[in-house]
Design goal:
alpha/beta; five-stranded parallel β-sheet; four-stranded parallel β-sheet
């Protein structure tokens, strides 16, 4: 790390926390996981802050059953599946969308839901299904694509809804008896949409400090310094270290678009299971755009690969190195689970930056 100001902030964290004390911090967002790994922050903190990754990687928390539904759709002759690239190699039952494509399925990698609408325009005799994976950051763009398809009469476009909401997962994490989380680095991108107030319960009900952070080295160092100050003072607060991108009210227009198309409902999370009011489904008037309804997609209750410990990794129970398959039978080119596939996955971060196990402990 070459940034002297960042080093100074991190050294202040170490000096501020008394010897013999260690605080468990969860960075919720997968983008933070990658940034922290790149920075090499853990080694500098000298064990006084233990940083663990949370379920903030949307691909990683997608359930085995949802992956199976995507594979089911990909194997229908009339369907073109459009998806973000991270989803292509996530296995379920030993198979991925990439495997399905190799035997004839039509899978297109897109950069936005609007790309999927364009594919539908260009292929009027086929059905185009967009895999709706993401948190509050992505949901408004998916809703916008649905509204565009409706307004333009693009009837061969639909979405497989797998969107999830961050605050309900944080509620579960706060009270999880095995995790012992002392504070949170909260996601900047999600917060730009929902604002600051949806996190208030973390402080008021659970008494845990939390800081909304950006993704530059300076942002992460500032968040850690703020958390250290709160730990030492014994005062839990919700602070916004990313105010240049996150106003307190978030983005009301984005939420309006999201709320116009979707309603909160239960969702299945990898490692967590069914979590009430933590997902987004279609409102009744937009049901024709729901791929589950259009194609009568069956429910799959596939158990995760027992060799893959991704579920424990995304809950912060273990480090990636604690999985016996890490770097051996599970690599980015031959993954057993989504944590090694996704560009926001903790296992992918540890593998890419060659982090040692003591970087986690």
């Amino acid at each position: 790390m070459e940034n002297s100001a960042v080093k100074e902030s991190l050294n202040r964290v170490v000096e501020m926390i008394p010897d013999g004390k260690r605080f468990n911090i969860m960075e919720v967002c997968g983008t933070h996981t990658m940034a922290i790994a790149r920075m090499g922050v853990r080694g500098i903190l000298g064990g006084k802050m233990r940083l663990v990754s949370g379920p903030g990687c949307p691909v990683c928390v997608t359930s085995e059953g949802d992956i199976s539904r995507a594979l089911y759709l990909a194997n229908l002759d009339e369907v073109i599946v459009a998806t973000f690239g991270d989803m292509v190699r996530v296995p379920s039952g030993g198979l991925s969308l990439l495997d399905a494509e190799s035997i004839g399925a039509r899978v297109r990698v897109v950069f936005s839901p609007m790309d999927a609408v364009q594919i539908a325009r260009e292929n009027p005799n086929d059905e185009v299904v967009f895999l709706g994976v993401g948190f509050e950051t992505t949901a408004p763009t998916i809703a916008g694509a649905v509204l565009t398809a409706r307004d333009e009469g693009v009837r061969n476009f639909s979405v497989l809804p797998m969107m999830k909401l961050v605050p309900p997962a944080l509620e579960l994490l706060c009270g999880h008896p095995e995790l012992n989380i002392d504070g949170f680095i909260l996601p900047g991108h999600v917060s730009a949409i929902i604002g600051t107030e949806p996190y208030r319960f973390i402080v008021e009900r659970h008494g845990k400090p939390c800081v909304i952070a950006g993704f530059e080295d300076e942002d992460i160092a500032d968040a850690l310094l703020r958390l250290a100050e709160m730990f030492v003072s014994g005062e839990a607060r919700l602070e916004n270290s990313y105010s240049r991108a996150v106003p307190d009210e978030g983005n009301p227009r984005a939420r309006e678009i999201m709320d116009e198309v979707f309603l909160p409902g239960g969702a299945e999370w990898r490692a967590i299971g069914e979590l009430p009011e933590s997902g987004l489904g279609f409102r009744e008037e937009f049901a024709p755009f729901d791929a589950n309804i259009r194609f009568d997609v069956p429910k799959f209750d596939n158990a995760p690969n027992p060799l893959c410990l991704c579920g424990d990794v995304i809950l912060g129970k273990i480090s990636p190195h604690s999985c016996p398959q890490f770097g051996l039978n599970c690599t980015p080119t031959e993954p057993l689970g989504p944590c090694m596939v996704s560009s926001e996955g903790a296992c992918a971060a540890y593998f890419k930056y060659q982090l040692a196990d003591d970087d986690w402990a």
